[in-house]
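Worked problem 6 (solution included).
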Amino acid sequence: MVAAAHAHSLYGKSWSTLGRLLDPLTQDACAFYEDHVVFEDYSGIVEETSEGDRIARALGTKKAAILRNHGLLTVGHSVDEAAWWFITMDRSCQAQLLAEAAGEPRRIPHETAKHTYALVGSSLAGWFQFQPLYQRISREHPDLFE
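Solution. The predicted structure is:
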């Protein structure tokens, strides 16, 4: 991995307080099926680089971590991919929070979630999905690259 995305987004922060993995409730959430972790070792404001090492060990080969009581972290083989996973994970947190507030969501079955992951969870899929957003940002803010 060469890039990481991390922020304290509203839905990511909210979901992180539950200390749970995302369920396969939507096609987008399947991009993280069996490919994310919960980092339980939150110790307050980061003051030591060793926390980054602990997060990296917990993440292993997975693409995303829910940092309990903190937020989300995603990684990728490109900035585009890492950014897309972050956006998608935050939206998946929002969708699950809303679905659970409304009732008892129905999970996508294991085999279907695995198959969907194979189609939408690859590095190429993450990079590709970010491209329309990158083009829009480039068009609307050309001075960003000066």
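Discussion: The chain has a mean pLDDT of 94.
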